[in-house]
Automatic annotation (TrEMBL):
This is glycerophosphodiester phosphodiesterase. It comes from Lithohypha guttulata. The keyword Flavoprotein does not apply. The lineage of its organism: Eukaryota, Fungi, Dikarya, Ascomycota, Pezizomycotina. Residues 469-496 have a biased composition (Low complexity). Keywords: Glycerol metabolism, Hydrolase, Signal. Transmembrane segments: none annotated. It catalyses: a sn-glycero-3-phosphodiester + H2O = an alcohol + sn-glycerol 3-phosphate + H(+).
Amino acid sequence: MELQLTKEVLLAHPAAVCLLSSLLSFVVDMARITCALAFAALAAAAPLITRQDSDHTQLVAPDGPTEYQISYGPRPYYIVQNMTEGPLKDKLMSCENGPFSVSGWSIGHRGGGTLQIPEESAQSQEAGARMGAGVLECDVAFTSDLQLVCRHSLCDLHTTTDILLRPELAAKCTTPFTPANDTSSATALCCTSDITEAEFLSLCSKMDGSNSSATTPEDYQHGVPSFRTELYDTCATPQSLNGFIDLVDSFPGYRNFTPELKTPPAQVPMPFQGTYTQEQYARDLINAFINKGIAAARVWPQSFLPADVFQWISEFPEFGSQAVYLDEEGDTPETFTAAVARLPSLKAQGLNIIAPPFNYLLTYGDSNNDTIVPSSYATTAKAAGLDIIAWSFERSGPLDRVEATEDYYYSTFAQAVSYDGQLYEVLDILANDIGIIGMFSDWSATTGYFANCFGLTGPVGGSYYNSNGNSSSSTDNSNDNSDNDASSSSNNSNNNGGWPNWE
């Protein structure tokens, strides 16, 4: 017999309504209990991280379930699936279910979520941390009231924030917005030094980009590279250096810091306002961490200026012992040769960590430009006793475009790459042939997955500073692969004397 629960039946039998309601309530409750048990089982099986007692000299492994889980999302799996069949792909596929944890080898460039989220923002830091970056970056600039903030360049506010949409702040820009016309592109130049810290923190961070054809400040806001996205371009939060320190220190898993002292451009002559010197600027960066009680072992200060690095080595030897010299002095064949030649002298002056763009470290391995091997820069740096950190992964978009667009990061071996699976081939040479101790990335999941699969932990804080107060090379880098065949591979670095090909 078929039961028809019509409106008339229900009105005629109120007891039936009560019985039906109770039955539905019981079913819902049982469903909730079943779901709760299922999620609990998933949580127990998931690789999670926890806050533990530590001196912060080394990132700690997970120890039981907590509320914070490392998450890589689909991109690493997309890259692996796109790889050519072989041992490297097999190895990376074997890691697809983890366990995954924080790795100091994975360094969050401008936060680590920069591929999709406005750079230097709190949201980019949070994304990089969630993707397991063990070291997070703040590029340090100064404001008109001499406060330190996170911004990749002192003078990029016109492309990385909404300052041009704030008339009272746009009026303070070094070069106010000028619309495009028949003969000229739209222009503007807005610097952190044009405004106060409070004014800077009132801005919205946005994806870096500008529209050179714009005739209004609103139109000028666009122009993000096509391989990025404006999906999360919804008023991200800018950071002061102090705020960055507090945020990173709050992340589970013990993240460390790599602040970069930005070199002031010509539009911001030093001493700023006649009194604020480069030396004081460098001093203020270190003092910010000291004032926050952050141990030197957790801080990897960076600069493109050797004078900054050697000042830190002299004035703050614990911090200076793990200072990172960012080397971009080898962008032509002639300057590349000179950059390689001076590496031993940098080590002799007390430098322990060199950080070139990763194209400096790689070159073609055969006359057909089909293979990639370590360059003379890589082998010379290792022979000199320098540890190497490289920059910056995931800034270039799909690899099938890098040769046509003359992308900077692939300029020394662009003909040898043409599909995205080769991203992990490139990382494999950098990590397992050369033995770099860390990689900056705009999408920390990509480097984090690789680092976890190969057990790469990154540099060990405090290992560069001995008890006598002297700077010395780390002797405990678990991913230092100096015993591998990197040096022998470099002997096949084409017929170009060992430096990368330049087209």
